[in-house]
Amino acid sequence: MPDITIPVHFNSKESKIISGKMNNPQFTYKDWGDEDLQAIRKHIRNHYRDQSGICPYCRKDISIRSVYNANIEHIVPKSIARGFMFKPKNLCVICCDCNEIKRNQEVEEEETNPLSRVKEYTNYPSSSNSFKIVHPHFDNYDEHILKCGDIYIDRSKKGSFTIMTCELNRKAHKYGIETSLLEKSELITMMHEFESTTSFTKEMSVINKLREYFIRL
Question: CA-to-CA distance for 35 and 50, rounded, in angstroms?
Answer without folding.
Answer: 24
